[in-house]
Amino acid sequence: MNEMFAGWPLLSIVTFMPTAGALLILLARISQRGDNAGYDNGVKLLTLIVTIATFFMSLFAFAAFQWDAPGFQLQEDIPWAFGASYAMGVDQLAMSLVLLTTFLTPLCILASWSIEKQVSSYMVLFLLLETLMIGVFCAQDIVLFYLFFEGGLIPMFILIGVWGGERRVYAAFKFFLYTLLGSLLMLVAIVAMIVMARAAGIENPSNIPALTAFAAQGGFSPDIQIWLWLAFFASFAVKMPMWPVHTWLPDAHVEAPTAASVVLAAILLKMGGYGFLRFSLPMFPDASHFFTPLVFVLSVIAIVYASLVAFRQLDMKKLIAYSSVAHMGFVTMGIFAGNEQGIQGAIFQMLSHGIISGALFLCVGVVYDRMHTREIAFYGGLVHRMPVYAAILLLFTMGNVGLPGTSGFPGEILTMVGAFQVNAWVAAGAALGVIFSAAYALTLYRKVAFGVIENPKLDGIADLDAREWITFIPLVIATLVMGLAPSYVLDFTSISAEAIANAYAGAAP
Description:
- This protein is mostly helical.
- The chain contains 21 helices and 2 strands.
- It has helices at 10-30, 36-63, 92-111, 119-138, 142-151, 153-163, 168-199, 208-216, 222-239, 248-255, 258-268, 270-283, 285-311, 316-337, 340-371, 382-385, 387-401, 408-422, 424-449, 466-484, 487-505, and strands at 73-79, 85-90.
- The longest helix has 32 residues, at 168-199.
- The termini are far apart.
């Protein structure tokens, strides 16, 4: 299989195929004549085809990937400007997140079929967003990484600001300003790192593997690492988001259209975790050790606090948004445990949360499309009118709680095992959060699905249609396969997790 794709720029094809689809839509829009409804349906179909093709192309890249080989693979490197280069490459960590992105995007397009306002613009922005998200995980040059990382803000800002709810402008600007301000500090740190690496004679000072090797040789002194770590932390902590810089997330989720909420929770949040794993631990290991107690405290607060706040929410989307804050607390806890179990658990949790949280936002979108409200009190007894929907919602609720047999379990247990090896109190605090998560998730399900139908407006509500079936089936399969056979994921990501853990352990005091 490797010989078949030898010489192909697979990562560039996967990354920019959605952009090519966006250009096709723009060309079609210029020449569009006649029936707007027919044109809009054609745009939706074209976007769906492009995103499915991108997913299959990512599978080709996966087929050409060697599971047991360390380091970056499928590399491309073209000199660019100012010493930077267009360098692409993926390891097991990056490849798994690329697959998550390309897997979820077609499902988001299916979930966007009810969009009627400026359809072509919506689809163009979604395709551009997919390119930028994939680029973050494929970029092997730190300048290229930053451009992709920041570029993703623009389409998401517009998606929330144009197609969002009543307070969409407020939510869009809050999202944009929070994430941008943190990332400006990261830009300063990137420039400083490149200058230091160039002064030390590094041939390609913006290349991520070269910077990692430079850091491993003591290129960044412990004192310098402190400042660089803080600058990167300012960006990644907001992106996750960690407590207390999480307040933009509930507003963004509530106001965003359903598909944008899915992407926001499932993929954009993971860029923060990916940044910690790609930069903070391997490049600034001394600083990471120094700040580990702080991260542990913030992680436990996020897990417990966000779970308690979620329990009091009246809006389904806001409840799931706070749930995401809590689950990202497990991710940061596992990452900064610094051992292989914790890092493996964090990677698994990121992938699992991408699927389960995305599915839960899609579940909210199903009833919102029918009733145009997300208020929990409006619903009740849906199992009597929507039995299939109730069964699917139950599965993803159980996954969110971390029930064994679902994908939510392996990641949570591994992060707690990893944290327990470092600090038993941190693991105990996280375990308390697991109990609280069961309380808010099962309470939500009871109020929405069980009981009698007291609201007469629900008498005629319909169960899932064919399009919604097609949207949920892949997510159901992924949740069960990852839960029942987690070794498929863990075996694949183990080399990346071991390399990061070794880099972190090499600086242990």
